[in-house]
Design brief:
homodimer, UDP-N-acetylmuramoyl-L-alanine:D-glutamate ligase, 9-stranded mixed sheet, about 35% helix
């Protein structure tokens, strides 16, 4: 089954202790699409400027990503630049140029409206609501957000949360959204806002999921070399939602395997800059690392 | 097989957001013994003052803890008092009175010298070395330490590390000891100092182990109510070493199950003040939570 993603497309300039890259393919919708496309057909909605290197998306098209929803607007593409500290857990944003993303109004092509799986990447909650107004009875709606919207757009965020089936947050966001310092209570607090499924990402500490009565925890893959953490969260979401879409059911077993698929794809995404590692990644490599997750957690 | 533990016995005064307790049973050797005694006979070496309520140790004796190595010295017992912040991840030490612990020189009763499993709880590394000089060819020596000794007694600590089979550290200590920010590299760096087995504890994020070629990660039990984190690390070590001693072998399967046993006992220890939850804990409760660990990690 197909997955719709609505989010950002960007050109990222990133500096890490291991190197740097300028105007590289980035943005939540791009990372998500690259990750999800290993599991399910993807329909992309985002906006770029007329400076965007559209040919860089060929590898996505080749993997079944439908880019008819990618609007090319007059102006410059959204640009983000940042630098990661030595420990890779912290980064400083050097600049954010919204450019054409500033006036982004998601418009779904008519043939996208019946997409059964919907991922609302991190954009303004009002825009997330506008996307939901354009889809017809999706089977599953999942959402990402960020500290900024929790700070300044909480009522709109709560409105969209009430309409979603699942939410993927990091630990700080879960605590900020609920005011609970205990992460388990924070996740349960988010459930009370609407979503049946809450996934809390904890970076190097892995992730956990509360889904109805089910609880599942997965460690992060033990990477010795983290090359560039940019896009890890969106890649995780792509693997997770893509896997669920490929199964088209919501049993605890599917949700758990989806958490592992998300972890697997995210662990590859951070091995190179931009989406580079997701370009040449193979199905065999994904399956091999999935098996490795079983090995490192079984007892 | 028996386990020898050498560490502190203390009277703790602890304040948490959920209550407070004064002069309660504490100290690394006491928590360790209470935890390990569910799995194996324990031999305790520590020192207390003549103000120590020896009758409070009856529950340990009843569970097979040999307290002949508990020295009663003239003076007051080691006292620690601290207050936990709302998020329970941080605490402030209000006072530390070493008292009789200041001049503690571990003296093993002759009948302890052949104990096959040895746990050197967090004491001065020179004292840990003195303990090793008093045991005859132990099968397994494991060690705990703290930031203080890494700061001021690194040469002695490295000397004892070179003589141990395994070490249990928290994430900050592993980073501090090696200067590596990546935790996997930090753990491997500790391995290079001698121990074949390195366990890194991460509090609410669980723990992982590198043991020879094996890697294993376990999440923390999803507790909604953390009553008092004091002694969690020593309880974890007690469950872990106690389980290994009960198996008397060092296969990856045993080491992994030991990690889960440590996590199980630690998750109970923090449910009440002091060792109170470990007093009335039953074998059935341990087995039930062990099974629950399988449920929350399986996929």
């Amino acid at each position: 089954m197909s997955v719709l993603v609505v989010g950002s497309a960007a050109l990222d300039s990133v500096k890490t202790p291991l190197g740097e890259v300028t105007d590289a393919l980035g943005g939540s919708a791009i990372f998500f699409s690259a990750a999800a496309s290993f599991f399910a057909p993807v329909r992309l909605v985002a906006v770029v400027g007329n400076d965007f290197p559209l040919q860089d998306l060929e590898f996505l098209k080749a993997r079944g990503v439908d880019v008819r929803g990618l609007e090319v607007a007059d102006g410059k593409t959204f640009r983000w630049s940042g630098v990661y500290h030595l420990d890779m857990n912290n980064r400083d944003t050097l600049s954010t140029e919204l450019n054409v993303f500033e006036s982004f109004k998601p418009k779904l092509p008519p043939e996208y409206r019946d997409t059964p799986f919907v991922f609302l990447a991190n954009i303004h909650p009002e825009l997330q609501l506008e996307v939901l107004n354009q889809v017809n009875n999706p089977r599953l709606v999942m959402l990402d957000t960020m500290n900024l919207w929790i700070d300044i757009e909480l009522p709109a965020l709560k409105k969209v949360l009430a309409k979603t089936d699942g939410v993927i947050l990091n630990d700080q966001e879960a605590r900020q959204l609920t005011g609970e310092s205990n992460l388990i209570l924070a996740a349960r607090g988010v459930c009370k806002m609407g979503p049946k499924m809450v996934v809390v990402k904890k970076g190097e500490h892995g992730a956990f999921m509360i889904s109805g009565d089910d609880f599942f925890a997965v460690p992060a893959y033990p990477l010795e070399l983290l090359f560039d953490p940019t896009g890890a969260g969106d890649s995780f979401a792509g693997g997770l939602v893509g896997y669920i879409a490929s199964c088209n059911e919501f049993t605890p077993a599917v949700m758990r395997r989806a958490m592992v698929c998300g972890s697997v794809v995210a662990s590859f995404a951070v091995e190179k800059f931009s989406v580079d590692r997701l370009r040449d990644l193979t199905r065999e490599e994904i399956e091999s690392r999935y098996a490795r997750f079983r090995e490192i957690t079984g007892f």
